[in-house]
Design goal:
This protein has 166 residues and is mainly alpha-helical. The protein has eight helices and no strands. It is globular.
């Protein structure tokens, strides 16, 4: 349990640092298309959802195999938490900015950290769940679907508000 908690705390830190830095990767790479697939290419809410999704996905793949002996539900719990945290970005952003009629930069940044915290708290709470383990195929398919949508909509975004730059 202590090893898993340590890995989840490290994952939160990794997500916080990698997600923060990845906000700038596309510009730093001179707009490299491959970098744009995993980091924001503009300031839309959709693109900022990548700041949670990809670090969590990478972290879930970096987990050492011995952790799954102690908790077979760990990866699906982390990926489920990642999907939830990713979806919390637009939910929190549009809730507060809709209520205020504007957005505030420091609140936007706080939303990123709150979403990352939700991700890893959820993973911690569900890492022993039999139900989450039984639903792992659905969670993996949803993760792959999000991955495909991020790739597709990076360069072919639908003409709706989620994809618009503020």
């Amino acid at each position: 349990m202590k090893r898993i908690r340590s890995w989840l705390i490290a994952g939160f830190i990794f997500t916080a640092v990698f997600g923060t830095l990845s906000h700038f990767f596309y510009d730093w790479s001179n707009e490299n298309v491959l970098i744009g697939l995993i980091s924001p290419v503009n300031e839309s809410t959709w693109e900022h959802m990548k700041l949670i999704f990809f670090p969590v996905l990478f972290w879930s793949l970096l987990l050492p195999p011995h952790l799954f002996d102690a908790s077979p539900s760990l990866r699906p719990a982390l990926l489920f938490g990642g999907l939830l945290g990713t979806l919390m970005v637009p939910v929190l952003f549009y809730t507060y900015s809709g209520a205020l009629g504007r957005n505030i930069a420091w609140v936007d940044i706080l939303i990123f950290f709150i979403s990352a915290a939700i991700t890893f708290f959820c993973a911690w709470k569900l890492q022993d769940s039999v139900k989450i383990y039984e639903k792992r195929t659905v969670i993996y398919l949803l993760t792959v679907l999000f991955l495909a949508l991020f790739f597709l909509f990076t360069f072919l975004p639908p003409d709706i508000g989620l994809f618009a730059e503020p």
